[in-house]
Amino acid sequence: MTRVTVDPELLLWACDRSGQSRESLNARFPKLRLWERAEAQPTLKQLEQFAKATRTPIGYLFLTEPPVERVPIPDLRTVGNVHLGRPSPDLLETVYICQQRQEWYRDYARSVGEPRRDFVRSAHLQDGVVATASRIRHALGFDLDERRQMPTWTEALRRFIDEAEALGVLVMVSGIVGNNTHRSLNPDEFRGFALSDDLAPLVFVNGADTKAAQMFTLAHELAHIWLGQSGVSDAQAARLPEQQVEVWCNRVAAELLVPLDLLRAEYQRDEPLRAEMDRLARHFKVSTLVVLRRIFDTGALTGDDFRQAYKEELDRLRAIPRSTGGSFYVALAARVGKRFARALVASTLEGRTLYRDAFRLLGCPKIETFRELGHRLEVA
To answer: Does 34 lie in the same domain as 169?
Structure first.
């Protein structure tokens, strides 16, 4: 039986990196404490199981010291003007997966002669927020009157995503790592990120967050694309970030969704806040969280009142049971983005992309699943 020698410091690092409790890991690996004290060594099979359980690339466990892991794009998440700590394996893997998809789509776009996206890097931090939001709204076709005619703001969110993809932005919304339903993303760690590129701009929205929060995250990350600045964000309508880029993107996102001059004209200060939030959310077809932020921007709420009201509304929304079930194929298309999925399926059927590579990028291992996805996307 082959046993391997592993530096105890690396085992401790892997446990801490995983974010799992020591009790659960000790229960799964009864000799873990002995390994950490170098009083025993795991077999190769045990080490492979440990690496899988802690979501650690097994090669890391043979290093001489723990590696320093960083998000491969600017990390703009802060709390109290301090950068957040070590990124989780879930965040890192999600960024890596999206980078691989973006790289594939960039090559695909070149091969089929897609034009470069002129809107990428078309904005600057010195640009006015109202004018920039207006340009983004016009480019997307995110018309306020059209939004008002939709039955719900969740329908408006779907329309928002479709319009961004039609413009050439790859929009991926997922609450899990890849297609692993046992690895949920934590919205308290990050809510989204943007990968800027003038051929394959990509926006990722954490689907484990509330639908209400996702709309603001999408608008925030699109502002990043217009700036031409990649980054992982903790985009919240309630946050007043310290970094200039995040402040600007938050302001543009809020103005894009609810123009302040229109809100001032509609807001009835004498009415109860709860009733006004619901009425204005129906009127603008955005979430109550975005409406609450814009009411604050009018000066009608103090900072403390706003933060308290936002927390209460977020808690209320999170307590609403989420619908379960639904179509696997609808979920898969949302996770990878319809624009990306259609291009990948078409390229594979034409023989430009290997099925092996398509399965890896989609996270779908079966030919039947692949073909059905193409059929539902009207590609196959």
So the answer is: no
In the chain, the number of structural domains is 3
In a domain, 72, yes or no: no
Query: Range of 354's domain?
Result: 328-376
Q: Flag whether pLDDT at 183 surpasses 50.
A: yes
Q: Are residues 55 and 156 in the same domain?
A: no
Q: Is 1 domain-assigned?
A: no
- Claim to verify: residue 303 and residue 342 sit in the same structural domain: no
Both 54 and 168 in one domain: the answer is: no
Could you report the per-residue pLDDT of 354-372, keeping only the tens digit for each? 999 999 999 887 888 888 8
In a domain, 54, yes or no: yes
| Per-residue pLDDT tens over the stretch 292-349 | 989 999 999 998 899 899 889 888 888 887 765 568 888 889 999 999 999 999 999 9
Among 288, 285, 356, 366, residue whose Cα is nearest residue 332: 366
* pTM, to two decimals: 0.89
Residues 241 and 340 in one domain: no
